[in-house]
């Protein structure tokens, strides 16, 4: 069989089709957003198209590397991510400036802004897949002691990046790490006798922190280093009308835009509700206003197709590392989609997380495309394992 034919047979064309759909959806949304006067002459559509083009090249390259190579190098990816997070904390403001009270980005000549926490999400998924798969290779017979040891390793691997990211501070991205960890832990085979009390304590801790934000915010400032603007997001989520000139403004505008779209929307580029920086965090409101409930539902369904497809890849692979890799990416994408859409309809507090593949972004889009490139790698090389040793090929 020719090499080109082998590539054609093994490449995941269905996943590529889904990504092409997201590219089109993103460009449509950003084109409508930048028609607002707030953007001047900046062509975000062209920039996004270029980032997508680079992203597809990244996917092609990532798909050619075998999952076993990612497994062997996962600790190195993780170490690089930690060093970048430490670097942004120590870097001078000339290359890592504060923005809205947070220090999260490197401003690099020619490259632009780079957010290390975005890189760390994918590096962390690789590390989790490595930890769980290696643990199961070493401890074939499971018991509570081995499960406790595995859970401890996962929590330690999460604690280091989450602590550094919270120091920036960036609560939204920290929650993504928690969602990734939870997804991998659930499918890792750890006994529910251990997980039930752990998840119970985590849920209780979350409720307690929410209560402290409302009634004892000064204590959280002193102990956890949370900032006042983060509390404002919770207050504006619970009662946006009392903060309609400050933290609650974007939320009220987003809900007004989505609600005004009703069933079928106002029509493309017929949006009338102004939302600052609508091409990033609040891009979902464009689809709600201009395409209505029907258009918004199609967008959500497209994300469901993507998640379903990745789950299918996870179930077909024979490699535990690849399975956990897919699960981690599903956890990351599912949480970010749920959080971003939820915050535009007052279901969840505003955290600043973008809508994957749809919101405008450079480094964030590339890293998300790289994570999908890992899925392409799992699918591409899985076919080699399926037919290994078949003399007819």
Automatic annotation (TrEMBL):
One cellular component (GO) term of this entry: cell division site
Superkingdom to which the source organism belongs: Bacteria
Pfam families cross-referenced by the UniProt entry: FTSW_RODA_SPOVE (PF01098)
Keyword Transmembrane helix: yes
Annotated keywords: Cell shape, Membrane, Transmembrane, Transmembrane helix
Membrane topology according to the record: Multi-pass membrane protein
InterPro entries: FtsW/RodA
Compartments (UniProt record): Membrane
Transmembrane segments: 12-33, 45-63, 75-99, 119-136, 148-165, 171-187, 194-215, 291-311, 323-345, 357-378
Gene Ontology process terms (BP): cell division; regulation of cell shape
GO molecular-function terms, A-Z: lipid-linked peptidoglycan transporter activity
Protein name as catalogued: Rod shape-determining protein RodA
Organism: Jeotgalibacillus proteolyticus
